[in-house]
Amino acid sequence: MKGSSLARALDDRVGGAGFLTKAMRKAFANHWTFLLGEIALYAFVVVLVTGVFLTFFFKPTMEEVIYNGSYVPLRGVTMSQAYASSLEISFEVHGGLLIRQMHHWATLIFLAGIVAHLLRNFFTGAFRKPRELNWLIGVALFGLVMLNGLFGYSLPDDLLSGAGLRILHGVIVSVPLVGTYLAMFLFGGEFPGGDIVSRLYSLHVLLIPGLLLLLIPLHAVVLTWRQTHTQFREKGLKNTQVKGGPFFPNFLAKTTAFLLWVTGTVALMATVFQINPIWLYGPYVPSTVSAGSQPDWYMGFLEGALRLMPPWEFTVLGFSVPMSVLIPALVAPGLLFTGLALYPFVERWITRDRAVHNLLDRPRDVPTRTGLGVAGIAYYGVLWMAGGNDLIATNFHISLNATTWIFRVAIVAGPVLAYEVTRRICLGLRARDRRTVEHGVETGVIVRGSDGAYAEVERPVTEEEQAVLVPAASPAPPALPPASNGNDVPPPDRHRVRDALQRSWDR
Question: Which positions carry the signal peptide feature in this UniProt record (predicted)?
């Protein structure tokens, strides 16, 4: 009785009982791919919890000390307090190494979950109206988490992270006019400076996590709860219907299990698989570079872009413009993130499709979009592999120059080839689906006719199968403009280009 009275009192003053009642009954589709975003969400929870633990012991300063801790090989070595405190966490704080490795593995899984969730949304068309804003927030989250991962990776001030900071410094100073000022401000003087760790620490634990804590609930909760849940086509489903279980208890049980699975997986990986053993690298010394240095997987494509770019440079008004750094550092990620952010609006412009879409596409049903998506994956993948061209050359006994030129050709030809092959495969799969609907499903039963010929028995397609195989009818787009205005004057070029793109979209 007291509990119900308290609930009524809170509802009278705060409100929310109506929303809570509705939320408990909200239907969630059952397909397993809808839980890919949950992996990213719960990895972020692990990152936050372990990050709070690490802040109790990490000292974000580059003030030099002489190490006298428990790791004998580095005793007596001069190092920054940031590196010394990282060693202390690893060897002297109870559970410190486990938490450090959980933090690192959870970050990698967090980014992998974001990428998997993003690709699922792209290939199924989940970014279409009314979810364009949610898509843009997801792209922003991808960029912020990638940037924060780079900052966190650089905090221990070991030799490997210092090599990454050296590259970051080179990229910043290459920006014309303002680059040197930005580098001096961020690093606190000439490289390596004395403030870079403390400033990255502020960004890593305050600014970017604050933005994430604002955007993630907006992306995962507010907009998702406000909108109808997406789902794959089934018999009898419409844009305004959702087939699935309610949030309580069905979805709540699933998502709780995912939280436990993600946490357990991260803990297991941190226990069994060593990652970022900073004590083996030693403190950062600007004059020393470790061979075979590799960044975390999500930064590999930027490393590859830097390695593939020829040494192009020119001078304008007395200022050197190093294109060999600017193009990999700005154009390569710019193409990736700008393309992702603008794609929903480009597709809507081409197809003239402004209808609300809550039913998802199968990738084969939109060959052009699927081809473009695979081309983007090929672009990212080639750059990612090029980031390890030295290791490829060493382990496969190939000339380093040969691997560089192979990747230079692949970055141009690979996406084009991936697009065309993927599009042809999608067209072939669509043709097979049409044949299945027209002629029936192959049963694998072979019979011999009266004329001695053998044939396979086919059964008619059921209504449930047909609902999946036949795409839902899309609303008719606006009529194309006339070929002329009555005076034999052709339409503007912008209309002709758009009309041509629309006609060829699904062919």
Answer: none
Domain holding 168: CATH number? 1.20.810.10
Q: Which residues contact 125 (CB under 8 A, 6 or more apart)?
A: 357, 360, 361, 366, 369
Domain assignment present for 364: no
Q: For residues 389 and 181, what is the distance between their CA atoms, to the nearest angstrom?
A: 33
The residue behind tokens 């995962």 is 220
Grouping H, G, I as helix, E, B as strand and the rest as coil, residue 459 is strand
Instruction: Compute the distance between CA of residue 77 and CA of residue 182 in angstroms, rounded to an integer.
Output: 32
Please tell me the distance from the alpha carbon of residue 229 to that of residue 360, in angstroms, as a whole number.
10
Q: What is the pLDDT of residues 357-392, one digit of tens each?
A: 888 899 999 999 999 999 999 999 999 999 988 889
Give residue-wise pLDDT tens across range 439-476: 888 878 888 888 888 887 888 888 787 878 877 655 55
Number of other CB atoms surrounding residue 42 within 10 Å: 24
Q: How many domains does the chain have?
A: 1
Range of the domain at 225: 25-291
CA angle 330, 322, 301 (to 5 degrees): 35
Cβ pair 307, 388 in contact under 8 A:
no
Q: Cα 307 to chain center, whole Å?
A: 22
Structure tokens at 4: 């119900």
Q: Are 237 and 20 in contact (CB under 8 A)?
A: no
Query: For residue 104, what are its two tokens?
Result: 């690192």
pTM of the predicted model as reported, rounded to 2 decimal places: 0.88
Q: Which residues of 59-86 are buried (b: 16+ CB within 10 A; e: fewer)?
A: bbbbeeeebeeeeeebeeeebbbbbbbb
Judge whether 474 lies within some domain. no
DSSP label at residue 126: T
Would 494 be classed as within a structural domain? no
Look up residue 230 and give its DSSP letter. P
| Chain centroid, CA 364 distance in Å | 22
DSSP string, 147-215: HHHHHHHHTT-BHHHHHHHHHHHHHHHTSTTTHHHHHHHHHTSSTT-SSHHHHHHHIIIIIHHHHHHHH
Place of tokens 């403009």: 481
How many residues can be counted in the chain? 507
Are the C-beta atoms of 459 and 443 separated by less than 8 Å? yes
